[in-house]
């Protein structure tokens, strides 16, 4: 194809275009990394440095100290909320992924029971949501107030994730299902031994979506958990960092860190799990979401 008839996006980029792209990426990376840098540095700064700066620390002054993290992990409020968040995220993610896989697989098989009606109901959730008050009344009516299930069940299934999984399952060649059924495999065996191994990429992406949603969810805990001892880390983060409520001081520290440093340490602990997990799942994003959506 001659350069005259070649589409614009297939043309070799010019030096100016490459420079503009590089500069844009550098600016975006700076806008993302600089706040993380200031938060991390403030959490590692001494009281003298934070007091002298009067806010977030941009340049290390009197060295690095881990007093803020020491106080945070000695504080029963923060430590307990961290354990609660880990438990809710682990249990909720397992429940959500299993239910979503089962639902998406049944909806990907034409002729399954209630296929069209259930699929229409799932798609309807994209435009119509029950709303806060009906969900709150439902949770209260079944006795889940002040129960961790009140955080998990209302967000156990995401219509978007079910549709993405269904689209990927439908892209699997029908011949594989036919050959498995000829060998006497049932639906659960087909799902476990054929569909699941071929769908590791999309399952990894959906798992990340659910895990991040549970880890960052504070609103359901705010609504349904009356006991502050059951609060997850996200709600503690909102209460003591966003609303600037006084955080109980941990005993046993000779040089107590400033409140701002402790708050930034809590923010770092809330961010670190996502930063650790995301690089391992990122390679699956294109294959898991984009290919599944296009083929569906």
| Helix percent band | 55-70%
Largest sheet: none
Distance between the amino and carboxyl termini: 31 Å
Care to count the β-strands?
0
CATH class of the largest domain: Mainly Alpha
Question: CATH architecture of the largest domain, please?
Answer: Orthogonal Bundle
Query: How many separate structural domains?
Result: 2
Please state the overall shape, judged from the principal axes of the Cα atoms: globular
Report the portion of residues in β strands. Answer: under 5%
Could you give me the name of the CATH homologous superfamily of the largest domain? MetI-like
What structural class is derived from the secondary structure elements? mainly alpha
Q: Give the helices and strands as they follow along the chain.
A: HHHHHHHHHHHHHHH
Q: Which fold name corresponds to the CATH topology of the largest domain?
A: MetI-like fold
Low-confidence stretches: none
Mean pLDDT: 81
* Oligomeric form: single chain
Number of helices: 15
């Amino acid at each position: 194809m001659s350069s005259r008839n070649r589409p614009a996006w297939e043309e070799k980029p010019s030096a100016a275009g490459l420079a503009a792209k590089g500069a844009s990426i550098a600016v975006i990376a700076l806008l993302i990394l600089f706040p993380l840098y200031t938060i991390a540095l403030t959490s590692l700064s001494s009281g003298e440095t934070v007091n002298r700066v009067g806010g977030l620390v941009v340049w290390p002054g009197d060295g690095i100290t881990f007093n803020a993290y020491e106080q945070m992990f000695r504080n029963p409020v923060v430590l307990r909320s961290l354990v609660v968040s880990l438990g809710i995220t682990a249990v909720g993610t397992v429940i959500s992924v299993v239910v979503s896989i089962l639902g998406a697989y049944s909806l990907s098989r034409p002729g399954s029971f209630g296929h069209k009606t259930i699929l229409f109901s799932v798609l309807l959730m994209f435009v119509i949501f029950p709303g806060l008050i009906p969900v709150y009344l439902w949770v209260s009516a079944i006795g889940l107030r002040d129960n961790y299930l009140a955080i998990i069940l209302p967000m156990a299934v995401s219509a978007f994730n079910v549709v993405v999984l269904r689209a990927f399952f439908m892209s699997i060649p029908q011949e594989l299902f036919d050959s498995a059924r000829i060998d006497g495999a049932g639906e659960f065996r087909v799902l476990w031994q054929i569909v699941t191994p071929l769908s590791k990429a999309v399952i990894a992406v959906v798992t990340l979506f659910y895990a991040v949603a549970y880890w960052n969810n504070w609103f359901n805990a705010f609504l349904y958990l009356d006991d502050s001892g059951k609060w997850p880390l996200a709600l503690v983060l909102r209460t003591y960092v966003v609303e600037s409520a006084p955080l109980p001081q941990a005993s046993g520290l000779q040089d107590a860190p400033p409140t701002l440093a402790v708050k930034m340490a809590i923010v770092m602990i809330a961010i670190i799990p996502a930063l650790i997990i995301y690089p391992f799942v990122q390679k699956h994003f294109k294959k898991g979401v984009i290919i599944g959506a296009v083929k569906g």
